Amino acid sequence: MDRRMLVAGNWKMYTTSGEGAALVEDLAPRVSDDWDEVEVAVCPPFTGLKAVSTVIELDHLKLKLGAQDVHWESEGAFTGAIAPRMLTELRCDYVIVGHSERREYFGETNETVNRKVKAVFAAGMVPIMCCGESLATRDALETESFVRKQIMEGAAGLDTAEAAELVIAYEPIWAIGTGRTPTPEAANDVCRTIRATVGAMYGPPAAMAVRVLYGGSVKAENARMFFSEPDIDGGLVGGAALKADSFADIVKAAL
Ligand code: PGA
Questions:
Q1: pLDDT for the residue 183
Q2: Residue at 99 is within a domain
Q3: In sequence order, which residues have a C-beta less than 8 Å from that of residue 215 and are 6 or more positions away?
Q4: Are 95 and 116 in contact (CB under 8 A)?
Q5: pLDDT by residue (tens digit) across 214-230?
Q6: Which one is catalytic: 71, 99, 108, 133?
Q7: Whose CA is nearest to atom 3 of ligand 1?
Q8: Measured from the CA of 10, which atom of ligand 1 is nearest?
């Protein structure tokens, strides 16, 4: 099965609306020859979604748009929260769910991740569900069992078509923003475990179709090594996604 590579930029809490629009204007000409072959997505903060969506529409860009989080309810008295249908209205394709920063600083659990994953699908978007272990878990040699549990609980209760469409980002917490990475082989081993877990839950066709990204200090210099591993279908990129040239180089590494 040919899985389409996906390179997604997670802009975290860095770009204003204006900065985000400018970044996309800068990025688009650098990757427009590539996005038929590689899916390219950007995930601005909520306040930047409208401006980036407008640039995508007016310039007819084949760039995909993602949000960084969402609430699982479709509306309600949840001050400060954003509902899935507010994101579909802005033509979001993807929503990052369960990033380790959300888990660490905002109390996200596998259970809330699961609710969000289902809500994102129900609204017609695709979740980029994040998983990954801490250094302590890695040192205790518990990475595989820890990540397997995150997948089994986070991706529970989907139908097989949803499971096949799901994107999972494997991001070792100790590699995020640190410049440290696992070897491509070690990252691929965990991505293979993730794929096998999806297979155990939803069957071999879903396992073959689910896209597993690597994230954590992906740079232009190391991207090709990760992307050439058989179970890695692209990357979730933080710091290096904030500059058009470095992000474009990472996209080219996925060609
Ligand atoms: P990084 O972040 O590329 O800056 O390590 C990745 C992420 O947190 O998604």
A1: 98
A2: yes
A3: 10, 130, 132, 169, 170, 171, 175, 176, 235, 236, 237, 238
A4: yes
A5: 999 999 999 999 999 99
A6: 99
A7: 238
A8: 9
Task: Quote the domain boundaries for residue 93.
Answer: 6-253
**What integer pLDDT is reported at residue 174 of this predicted model?**
98
Does ligand 1 have an atom closer than 6 angstroms to the CB of 239? yes
Task: Note whether 191 and 211 are within 8 A (CB).
Answer: no
- For residue 53, being part of any structural domain is answered with yes
Known catalytic membership, residue 60: no
Q: Is residue 190 part of a domain?
A: yes
Does ligand 1 come within 6 angstroms of the Cβ of 177? yes
Residues of the chain under the 50 pLDDT cut: none
Identify whether the C-beta of residue 95 lies closer than 8 Å to the C-beta of residue 66. Answer: yes
Output the pTM of the full model: 0.98
The single residue of 101, 133, 162, 171 carrying the catalytic annotation is: 171
CATH of the domain at 187: 3.20.20.70
C-alpha 59 to ligand 1 mean position (Å): 28
Determine which residue's CA is closest to atom 2 belonging to ligand 1. 238
State residue 1's pLDDT score: 59
Q: Is 162 a catalytic residue?
A: no
The answer to whether residue 1 is domain-embedded is no
Task: Give the helix/strand (H/E) hosting 246.
Answer: helix 244-253
For position 2, what pLDDT does the model report? 82
Q: pLDDT, tens digit, for every residue of 124-154?
A: 999 999 999 999 999 999 999 999 999 999 9
The total of structural domains in the chain comes to 1
